[in-house]
Amino acid sequence: MVRSLSAFLFILISCLPCLSQSISEKVVDQYDISNKRLLAISTGINLYMMCQGQIDLDSAMLLSCDAYKFSRLLPYNEGYDNGRISSGQSLIDSGLIEKAKLQFNRLAGDDQIRLAIQLGTYYLFKPGTVRTDLDQSLRYIRQAQRLAIRSGKPLWKNECLSLLAKYHTQTGQILISQRYFSNVVLANVRANDKKGTALAAANQAINLPMRHSDKIGSLQKAKTLCKQAGLKTKEIEILSNIIVEYFISDWKLARVNYLELIRLQKASGFLHTHLAENGIGYIDDVQGSYVSALAHSLEAVKTMEKTGDTKFSALFYPRLASIYFHMDRKEGLTYYLKSIDNRSKETQLFWYKSFIACAGEMIKYYGGKKALEFLTPIQNKFPPLTLFDKMNLYLVRGYCYADLKQDRRASYFFDLFTEMAKQFPPEFIYAEIPFAYLRIAEFYSGLGDQSRTKLYLAKVKPFLPSKGNMYFLCKLDLINFRLDSLNKNYKSAIKNYQLFKEKSDSNLTLAASKQITFMQVQYDSRNKDASINSLTQQGELKQVELRRSQYVRIVASGGVVLLLVIAGLLCYQFLENKRSNEKLQLQRFEVYLKNRSLEQLLEEKQGLLKEVHHRVKNNLHTVMSLLESQAAFLANDALSAVQDSQHRIQAMSLIHQKLYASDNITTIQVSIYIRELVGYLRDSFANAQKIRFQLEVDPIELDVAQAIPLGLILNEALTNALKYAFPDGRSGSISIAFKHLDNRRFTLSITDDGIGFRPNNFQDEDTLHGIRLMNELCNKMQANLNINTIRGTSISLVFFQNQKAKYYDKIS
Q: Is a pLDDT exceeding 50 seen at residue 805?
């Protein structure tokens, strides 16, 4: 008795009455008890089939009974139900099980036997997988048996034996179960009770496991017995079970039986034929008979709306949507969206399949990106609950990424789908999974991946005899064409392409398109006529009400007008707030997207700027290398000029090296830079080893626009000191200080204890060029330069932070 999603079903059952549209109680109330039971069972069977194993049959029956406000025991009490609701049944339907147990001890005779059977039935078909429920069921079945034997009434003996047989069916003991059912059939045959025999044979056949080798034959025999006994509703129920078997194995026979089912339903006055019409629509749709599929699906929706049976509309509108999409008609999206309009966690079991299908079809018309934008927020708010929903979400995500040409991500999601599909119950594999395999094969054939294409084609082939249709075969021919082309088997490729074109061209003829349009117009016209009639009737009723309440209206007219004005203002305010909120949400989303885009652009620009600094540094090093190679052929003044240029280039190169190696590409840490530049110059001059360097540098960050001229000034000052301050190998010291003066001012000083400037130094072109260069750089930084030659040489400058000098300007 495996029942999945029991907690979810409890919430769904408790919320169904307030979540769905109202059912026309007038239609249901005119049914006798057998037609009500047929409605509960037919709806339960259809829910079971449509949900494809996401819920079990017992849970589907419970959902059906709750939807129509029937007793939960109605599908199971046919043999002893006298049309009256007993007090014990009322307690069970109200969930007051303990009170029902107490009442059992106070009853006697038939009432006690009936309540024992009802309690046994309640526990046997209760959602959940608790072993104690089965134990409780068996306990009450045994008590009912003892009471039935004591009463001596065959009715109760047979009912107890039938319930015991169902118990063994639920526990998987099929042989024992069938033996008990056979005993009930034999007892009724001996009593010459044709009705009892037919019901017993029907129970025996229905309770065989799905796809059992004897099931269809047993159902056919039971159907004949019910027809002979005049049990029309039981005959219809058995036919529904026959369709379930054929639906899995043979769609052609399933369709034939659906047509007979509709005929029998109409003949017995059963108006809820939309369940069967929808089933035919599904079969015709997957087999490519779109005209017939649309006719039956439109009839299903029409009957559903006519009977007011719209509680499970989320299972009917998607059929219309699917047909429209298979005919390349965009209006199918309208029906998918209609089926998920009132989505909630409580009804997720019914609308989630439509949501996934809608996302899949959006790819065709709006592309994979838009489909993902539709899919992701709803998936985040309503995560999938079942295996079927999870695997199909992976599949649709794969389709989206395939459309976006993100083949690796698409392949990843297709692999997830394939792994989960292995766990799916084979008896509930209809057309969706084989067709998914076919589309995945098409994806890999487009990539030229022959091995994976053949792998998925192998998964499709077992389903082709029963699930194949024009649409399937059309796709298959296209894939075979691609495989033959890859293998250079051009003769076979041309043949397969011709077959593909023939099937795709014949898939929807012009005449069929016209016929479809005509049927749609007829459907819309009938809807409009019905709406007009409904409005007319409402108008007449309003006139009667107005005449009756004329006096009251005169007295209360002022109050009514005031209330209407207030209500109108409130509605207007509500709508304005709603529109404002929607606009605000849209604007927030747009701002978020723009911010994300700007952040990405900023990251890209920073990366590019780092690359520029890196290349500038490399180019400067290249220039230095060229100068160094030239220096080998130069002497005296020319050599000195080249070496000075090398030092200046290195000063700038260090800046660019710091920038591309740092996360911050606009500022550098000056203290580190000064130490590295001093180290470089010390290594560049032979006499520098006798000179002691003293550094007092504060940890200061400067903009690159100030750092480069500052570095060049430091280079010139140190170069002059190393070249001229300590002649003839003298030793000495050079002090470098870079400090804060206040919040925005900085000072740089380079002081040596050498021989100081001599008059002949100012006649030296190198020295003069260095001083001019420092002056120009200070002007660009708007800094004050001071040179003092007392007791050596001291060069100092004071400047403000963030003076936006353009360090790429030409320095003359």
A: no
Given this model, what pLDDT does residue 473 score? 66
For residue 59, which of 120, 11, 117, 115 has the smallest C-alpha distance?
Answer: 11
For 471-474, the CB contacts below 8 A with 24+ separation are 471/286, 471/288, 471/326, 471/435, 471/507, 472/434, 472/435, 472/438, 473/503, 474/500, 474/503, 474/504, 474/507
**Mean pLDDT score of the chain:** 79
State if pTM tops 0.70. no
278 closest CA partner among 295, 259, 297: 297
Q: Which helix (H) or strand (E) holds 461?
A: none
662 token code pair: 């740092």
Q: Which of 811, 457, 405, 471 is nearest to 648 (CA)?
A: 811
Residue 107 DSSP code: -
Whether the CB-CB separation of 353 and 392 falls below 8 Å is answered with: yes
Q: What is the DSSP string of 512-550?
A: HHHHHHHHHHHHHHHHHHHHHHHHHHHHHHHHHHHHHTH
In this predicted structure, what is the pLDDT of residue 530?
58
DSSP 724: I
Q: For the ranges 182-191, 205-214, 507-516, which has the lowest average pLDDT?
A: 507-516
Confidence check: pLDDT of 257 > 90: yes
Beta carbons within 8 Å of 241's beta carbon, 6+ residues apart: 45, 205, 206, 219
In the structure encoding, which two tokens stand for residue 61, read together? Answer: 């029956």
Q: Identify the band that residue 472 occupies on the pLDDT scale cut at 50, 70 and 90.
A: low
Q: Quick one: the chain helix, strand, coil %, rounded to 5? A: 75, 5, 20
Specify the CATH number for 668-812; select among 3.30.565.10, 1.10.10.10, 2.60.40.10, 3.90.1150.10.
Answer: 3.30.565.10
**Each residue of 717-769: pLDDT tens digit?**
888 888 888 888 788 999 999 998 887 889 999 999 988 776 555 455 666 77
C-alpha torsion angle, residues 174, 176, 179, 185 (rounded to 10):
-70
The burial of 1, by beta-carbon neighbours within 10 Å (0-12 exposed, 13-18 middle, 19 or more buried), is given as buried
Question: How many Cα atoms occupy the beta-carbon half-sphere of 701 within 13 Å?
Answer: 8
Element (H, E) at 738: strand 732-740
Comparing 636 with 556, the larger pLDDT belongs to 556
Q: How far apart (Å, rounded) are the C-alpha atoms in residues 163 and 138?
A: 9
pLDDT of residue 311 exceeding 70, the answer is yes
Q: What's the pLDDT tens digit per position in 259-297? A: 999 999 999 999 999 989 999 998 888 787 888 888 998
SS (H, E, C) 393-446: HHHHHHHHHHHCCCHHHHHHHHHHHHHHHCCCCHHHCCCHHHHHHHHHHHHHHH
**pLDDT bucket at 342, cuts 50 / 70 / 90:** confident
- Contact partners, residue 700, CB within 8 Å, separation at least 6: 669, 670, 671, 738, 740, 746
3-state secondary structure of 734: strand
Q: Which three-class secondary structure state does DSSP give residue 626?
A: helix
With 70 as the cut, is the pLDDT of residue 464 above it? Answer: no
